[in-house]
Design goal:
By secondary structure, the chain is α/β, with parallel strands linked by helices. Helices cover about 40% and strands about 20% of the residues. It folds into 3 domains: about 260 residues, TIM Barrel (Alpha-Beta Barrel); about 130 residues, CBS-domain; about 180 residues, Alpha-Beta Plaits (2-Layer Sandwich). Strand 20, helix 22 and strand 21 form a beta-alpha-beta unit. The longest helix is centred in the C-terminal third of the chain and has 18 residues. About 0% of the residues have low confidence.
Length: about 575
């Protein structure tokens, strides 16, 4: 378009500069793209970027200014090493459509000028500004999606449209606002909300960017939840120097390696992944039909873009419905207009990285009963496909494993699950409460009242744990009269979880009295023989607790260290007046 900017703004554009902040793959540390951020606006007398755009909007030159700024950003982007394989995230002002000179095709002309593809650019639209008068975020989103550009919905959760917008106009990428991610390791409510947002987005085939990540704790929680990409100071602050943009961020690679996390999917699920050959979204429909003819055993095929990244799946049944429709064949033959005939047939599909925990895959699948499977990626690229039947097999394997390992009496997880939990605690930087419970004077009770009543006492304690502890707790039965519980906590609920743990002692001590005769309850003891066969008086049953608090700054959290401390404390707790020993691992 012809540059109609006033001379003042042409001069201002020369002063303004573009900074780039990298967006990287959470599982590899490799760059995915960069966000263009405006700089030097203070030198023009504006206190914020928003005030600058308000000014050009009020002068009626928002669109022509944006196109000029867009060209400036794209030109500088081409100076980044490896830019051909990256995305440029460019922020749009939602008021562009109000401008009288708005027209189509200008971005494609700019891309052609700088030898870039449509896949190299992603327009960011923020719902934060949707309340601006006459601003319709849906119209902006629809326009650029119709032009086949990628769309990222920025600041998700801070506006008013939220889930309604996801339902009506599904973007390609979702950026979760920093508000929900800051100190997420300390706030269970934020963790639950981010998990729900992320898993919904994944089920809709949307990539998720964790925005504004500043700490390793925030990074790993978002990674575990299933976010694909990350942006923030932990990776790199915005920079105006394109030479500082890296292809791979070594410090992120290092913290991923240092984490030494067990990759469940590699060991348990890789054998089930089917390497179905994907179809590119730009493939002609006649070639798509030929694909199914040549691969008659395939009924569902993953669809990818030119970057080999997944878009969704195509079901052969959808293709047949299209062909048998009144205008199917004629539409099939008319493929010269550049519009993709395949895109409307693509169905959204959840996908996750090959290094994701198996629980993420199972949760994604379980939350969407209509899904036919899950796409698996590696370094953001399509890797393979897990069908619904294979995921069910994996779930059944997990259930069988759980059944084999659970205690036959209480049906609680057994020793191998406890070992796995403690192993995870030793490798994790989050906060945990670990507790061993040991029933006191249980042998004497068994000798006097018999093993059947002894089993009833064990079941009573198991029921108390299940009933009195909140759902976040992991509850397990070591064997005999020994139990284990644990919970990951944040600063908001640490005290509550600790109170719940301690309250178990009081609850059991009171309820177990009903298992004694009236006479023994009044005496407060029973007479039996000890392990050396000496006759002694034994107090009524109670329970002692060895409690260990592990905080993020804890360094010596090895498995042996955790077990040693809990074991030593068990002996101390038996002789404590309050039946417990508690410590914090420094």
């Amino acid at each position: 378009m012809k540059n109609q900017l006033p001379q003042k703004w042409i001069a201002n554009l020369k002063i303004l500069d573009i900074a780039f902040q990298p967006i990287i793959n959470m599982n590899t540390g490799k760059i995915y793209g960069v966000e263009a951020l405006l700089r030097n606006f203070h030198e023009l007398g504006f206190y914020s970027i928003f005030s600058l755009f308000d000014e050009v909007y009020s002068e009626g030159i928002l669109y022509v200014f944006d196109i000029a700024l867009r060209e400036k950003a794209i030109e500088k982007f081409t100076h980044i090493d490896g830019h051909q394989n990256m995305k440029l995230f460019y922020n749009l002002d939602n008021r562009l459509f109000e401008m009288h000179d708005f027209e189509k095709g200008n971005t494609n002309q700019l891309l052609k000028k700088f030898n870039l593809e449509q896949d190299n650019i992603c327009f960011e639209i923020s719902e934060r500004h949707e309340i601006v008068q006459n601003c319709d975020i849906r119209a902006v989103l629809n326009h650029y999606q119709d032009e086949n550009f990628s769309i990222a919905l920025d600041d998700f959760g801070m506006g008013h449209s939220g889930y309604k917008l996801l339902y009506e106009n599904t973007p390609d990428i979702l950026k979760i606002d920093r508000f929900f991610l800051q100190d997420i390791e300390k706030t269970m409510k934020k963790k639950i909300m981010v998990r729900n947002i992320t898993h919904l987005a994944i089920q809709l085939g949307i990539k998720v960017i964790a925005e504004g990540i500043e700490t390793k704790e925030e990074f790993f929680i978002c990674k575990d939840i299933g976010c694909h990409l990350v942006q923030g100071y932990l990776v790199q602050k915005p920079t105006q120097d394109v030479l500082k943009i890296e292809q791979e961020y070594s410090h992120i690679v290092k913290i991923l390696q240092d984490e030494h996390r067990k990759l469940d999917i590699d060991s348990k699920t890789k054998a089930y992944i089917t390497k179905i050959k994907p179809i590119n979204i730009k493939t002609r429909m006649s070639d798509v039909i030929d694909y199914f003819k040549k691969n008659r055993e395939i009924s569902i095929v993953p669809i990818i873009d030119s970057n080999h990244e997944p878009i969704g799946t195509l079901d052969e049944k959808q293709l047949k419905d299209f062909l048998y429709s009144p205008f199917g064949i004629s539409l099939l033959k008319n493929e010269a207009n550049g519009k993709s005939k395949l895109k409307p047939l693509v169905k959204s599909c959840g996908y996750t990285d090959i290094s994701s925990n198996i629980s993420v895959i199972i949760e994604l699948f379980s939350n969407n009963p209509d899904t036919a499977g899950i796409i698996v990626t590696k370094n953001s690229k399509y890797y393979g496909y897990l069908s619904a039947s294979d995921i069910i097999k994996i779930m059944n394997e997990d259930n069988l494993l759980f059944a084999r390992e659970q205690n036959p009496l209480t049906k609680l997880p057994g020793n191998s699950m406890i070992e796995k939990y403690i192993d995870n605690t030793s490798k994790n930087e989050n906060s945990f409460i670990l507790c061993y419970f040991d029933l006191d004077n249980f042998k004497a009770f068994n000798d006097v009242y018999g093993f059947r009543n002894g089993d009833r006492v064990i079941l009573l304690f198991a029921d108390i744990l299940k009933t009195c502890l909140s759902n976040e707790f992991f509850i397990a039965h070591i064997g005999g009269d020994d139990f284990f519980i644990a919970v990951q906590f944040d600063t908001e609920n640490e005290l509550n979880h600790l109170k719940e743990t301690i309250e178990i002692i009081k609850t059991f001590t009171e309820q177990v009295k009903s298992f004694y005769s009236k006479e023994d309850r009044e005496l407060g003891y029973i007479t039996s023989k000890d392990r050396e066969n000496n006759t002694k008086q034994f107090p009524l049953l109670t329970v002692s607790a060895s409690i260990l608090l592990v905080h993020p700054k804890t360094k010596k959290r090895s498995i042996s260290n955790l077990n040693d401390i809990l074991s030593i404390q068990k002996k101390v707790a038996k002789y404590a007046s309050n039946n417990m020993a508690i410590s914090t691992l420094l």
